[in-house]
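FORM 12-B: Structure-to-Sequence Request
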């Protein structure tokens, strides 16, 4: 069941709310950017995401296939969410970094299934052999 959560960057310039169903699972990946930023995310459709403030405070970083917009606060550098388009996951998406959610309960994250992607080897739909470090 979807529930509305609120999130922000560290300095508070970027604020958002999103309707999330944690029973559908969260994601971790071993690709270069996810590994370096310790990314743990939940994917929602764009209609379930609302940027409340900070559109002008967000900067964009893209690399590789340019499918994802890796957004971050220009002031504090925190990556609260990203946007992109990947056909295999249903097209347009918003990836919310669970650590940026201000009102999620630890039990909700603990109970949420975690999917692992092997981005390092471009085997995105397979789990890597080792995931304990992600």
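FORM 12-B RESPONSE
SEQUENCE OUT:
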């Amino acid at each position: 069941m979807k529930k509305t959560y609120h999130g922000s960057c560290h300095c508070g310039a970027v604020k958002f709310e999103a309707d999330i169903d944690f029973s559908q699972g969260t994601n971790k990946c071993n690709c270069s950017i996810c590994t370096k930023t310790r990314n743990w995310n939940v994917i929602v459709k764009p209609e379930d995401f609302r940027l409340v403030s900070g559109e002008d405070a967000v900067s964009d970083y893209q690399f590789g296939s340019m499918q994802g917009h890796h957004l971050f606060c220009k002031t504090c550098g925190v990556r609260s969410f990203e946007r992109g388009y990947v056909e295999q996951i249903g097209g347009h998406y918003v990836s919310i970094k669970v650590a940026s959610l201000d009102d999620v309960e630890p039990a909700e994250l603990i109970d949420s299934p975690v999917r692992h992607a092997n981005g390092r080897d471009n085997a995105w739909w397979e789990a890597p052999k080792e995931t304990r470090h992600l």
